[in-house]
Request: fold
Amino acid sequence: MAKLHVTTTINGEPTEFLASPDQNMLDVLRDTLGLTGAKEGCGTGDCGACSITLDGRLVCSCLMLAVEAEGHSITTIEGMAQGDHLHPLQQKFLEMAALQCGICTPGVLVAAKALLEKNPDPSETEVRFWLAGNLCRCTGYDKIVRAVLETAAEMRGAA
Amino acid sequence: MNAIDNKWIGTRTIRPDGVDKVTGRAGYAADNVMPGMVWGKVLRSPHAHAVIRSINTAKAEALPGVKAVVTAADIVNFPLDKSVMLGIQDMRWMCRNVMAREKALFHGQPVAAVAATTAEIAAEACKLIEVDYEVLPHVIEIDDAIAPNAPILHDFIKYEGKPSNIAGTMVNKVGDIEAGFAQADLVIERNYDTRPVHQGYIEPHACTVSCTADGKVTIWSSSQGQFMVRAMTSLLTGISQSNIRAIPAEIGGGFGAKTIIYLEPVAVMLSKKSGRPVKMVMSRDEVFRATGPAPGMKATVKIGMKKDGTIVAAHGVYYLQAGGLPGSPLRGPVGCSFAPYNIANVLSEGFDVVSNRPKVAAYRAPGAPLGAFAVETVIDELCEKLGLDPLEVRIKNHARPGDKAVYGATFGSITFVETTDAMLKHPHYKAPLDKAPAPHIRRGRGVASGFWYNAGGESSAQVNITEDGNVTVTTGHPDVGGSRASTANVTAELLGIDHSRISVLIGDTASIGFSNLTGGSRVTFASAMVVTQSTEKVIGQLKERAARIWKIDPEAVDWENGEARPAGANAGKFPALTLKELAAKANEMGGPIGAGIQLNTVGADPGFATHIVDVEVDTQLGIVRVIRYTACQDAGRSLHPSYVEGQIQGGVVQGIGWALSEEFLYDKTGKMDNASFLDYRMPVCSDLPMIEAVALEIPNPKHPQGVRGVGEAGILPGLAAIANAVHDAVGKRFFSLPLSPPKVLAVLDS
Amino acid sequence: MTDIRYLAPQTLDEAVGAFAAAQGAARILAGGTDLLVQMRNGMAKPGTIIDIKKIAELTTIARTADGGFRVGAAVSGAVLAEHESFGTVWPGVLEAVNLIGSTQVQGRASPGGNLCHGSPAADSVPAMVAAGAVLTIQGPNGRRELPVEAFPAGPGRTKLAPGEILVSFTLPARPKGSGDAYLRMIPRTEMDIAVVGLAVNLTMANGVVTAARVGLGAVAPTVLLVEAAAKALIGSKLEDAALETAAAACRAACNPINDKRGTIEYRTKVAGVLLKRVAAIAAERAGRA
Reply:
């Protein structure tokens, strides 16, 4: 079978692409659509660097067929900031140095945003278990967890 | 420069590359594309040990879409009888590591590579390459490799006159250990073994290479040194360095393993043969099977102590796994293990053992965590048996400035005593710990220290004033953990201008002078030094321009708060000239303003760390969890405290993984059995507590800001500190890593 | 160009028809968290991928007439966790399903996929076995039902006949005083495959166990229903002696292998430890129910 035509929404934009039935969403994002913010650290769902949301639900884009995006809505790290206005998590990660090499950062941010949308007041333990699927080898997670907790507190204060 | 009222140095500014990294825009190696690009893929050995009799690439080349095939015949051959060194890397081994030549020495070693219009076709073509192997018996473990009648990997390597898998030795010696042990009140000797571990960067190796018809090569890749990429690629392809431009992509973690290359020379030859740009990206499976782990170790350590805690003699024997090609980091355990202490009689011996595993690469203080594991657990046991406080004993024995290290150097302004003393006084050390919170839970506390050499070395920087009076700074070493932020802080401080007016970039090999690798805990030390000198030169130029405008002597101009001012009333009365004003007049007053410095930096003091850790052991399941961790290092001066803490915290957690869960497992055929993040088991977020990083700031007198490198030492003490804490919890000693649950339970039940 | 086909039928009949027609060359796609990994490493090369997530029955959680639950085979762990009452009635099943992989994997992975993957270490399966879940299976010859413990046939193999698709899990209604729990031993706190997994489902009256089922995973070629352990618990007040007998039964049921994830001795010992811990949690939940 030739490539399939897929109509979907990515970061709020109606998007069309062609994909082989066995192509994963990550490869289409990166190689077809030029959205290289999602990273491939493993390709097997073990590192979380390719995290996106599908209809608001956190998933690994490497474990999703691109053709499954048909009719659904995807958000990636590229859709997190509104224009030049960073999301509070992005801003807090910068202020609190919650990144070193930065390769895991897009996935961590997408996952953390999904957490705060579901649970605006997570405990440290809840943050740690929610992010257990996002490997970071540089930071030891300390500053990541602190930045997520701090952002949550700020967002609750602002709300 | 170290004044307490510094405006920028020591503050937590936002890193220059930060916004790109939180928005997904930062360009890592695998993110790069080029028009007309084709995809390269590596065929890897399915055997742990085999002679390569022949390779037939005809069928692969005939597959539609295939643009080029390369084998070892396309890579420069460095004959086995003559060493050619680039830094610490021997090109005899590197050329074989990037493409197997006479033999495949480990499962996963590259044997050939293909470039094709799609990655799928390239992979398909790899399967069509016919390799005629003569499979040989393989050997994986150290004991098997050094046993009589072991399969020999390299016939030309001789030890004690006979073909051997012992490829090298190293000895450090002071005094007479037998005489020393005779003075001891207690001597303890223990045997250790540890498994190889992987650096575990989340970004797999990747590159894009363009080789044009005029022989010019451009490489975009992720590495710890674009100049290393250029030099090594040049040696392995025969293309002159002037014809290679290596552009550093953002690097997604390296921890030492990206101080060598795997793909770039292969991609260059594929691009040269195909006439197309070539992109190559490793899979995680390839990263595990064929890129550098840190070695596993087998060791014996014997230490003699007097009743008052004085260490009188120490003997360490360390066998390290080099992988299929020689070159394990012997100087780690041999030189570092006893270096924290001033011991009169020391013998430290290392053996480099080859076996059919991937060739090791550097990993954060290469080799040193292994030696520290052995030495620091023996010291703990001596202290326990003699009834002495383990931190006080360390302080008593610590080397002090002017002492001579076992590896030969005389120590400068080291601060081992201060570092350990800070942990002795830290609230964690005496904090109450409920040692049995539940019937099957035991808790314990452990401490340990560790030493790393640190380094200076070659660095270059260029500081330019833009026409509108702002600043660009270019350095030559990839930023792995926030070094651009530190550079920006230093430049802003010296120029007295707002941080936001400074842009910091990492130059490519054609745009900045030679700079050695990002490694050895050297970059913040060395780059701050060259950036400082460059900025001071620029300030000299600015003062000279102001002097010329005012028609006074340049000596009579001060630079303060981003402005040139007359130096006192005698200099004359002129309104201050800002950087913007001087920049606007640059051309009429003598041309562009900017300066570069290229130095071989010296004066890096050693790195040193002392840690305290609390663990919790589930005595029914053998599970060990870290519940509290405090780590201390002397940063000399924290140019950017967050990234100093980050280095310490990251090193600590890598040490925790090494101690508890990470290891390479092999099946009977010599194939790695756990080549995935799932089964390799690096620490995940929920495994850990917060990691308290204590950064002392006792300035290094040989550095303009007082910097001491902090990158490596954080990984050193954890292996021993955790083993010591587990002993404190359950009363048993552990001599084998990782402390995996089955291993722990077996000891508890014994 | 690959010749693989992707189908996303709206009805179960269409799906079964396509699956049967493919004669073994097709794979069912639910969450895909196992299938895509297998496709990537070359272990699966399906000619047709049949996505069953557009079929309502496979993605629905429903109460049965007698007060039990019917959970569609393709319901993701995250969706199951968000159900208003499932987790309070079957906390052990839910915690087991929610241990499959990371948060990201939970967004996709389903108990049906976990079961059909055929791993003896699958987390949700011991809990389903302990719960007494009954499977609904549909194939070219119609529908049939099967107790979940009868479904696995060995590592990577199941009792599905050619063309058959797993449709749903039916969990029985709960008598008062019931509780279930699942624990697994893994070296880390998350992201690992169970070295041993064990589930206990109890019903208690006046402190006495009146009904019990024990499911045990990762210690044999298939997940086991350990009837001897259940027998030791029934009639007891979970005294030490009863727990030790049940633990011994779990150890005796073990027929594990040495592999990269654990040794025979270790797995066997841990099975007994987990029985006691899980029984305590289940009893505590039964007391609250």
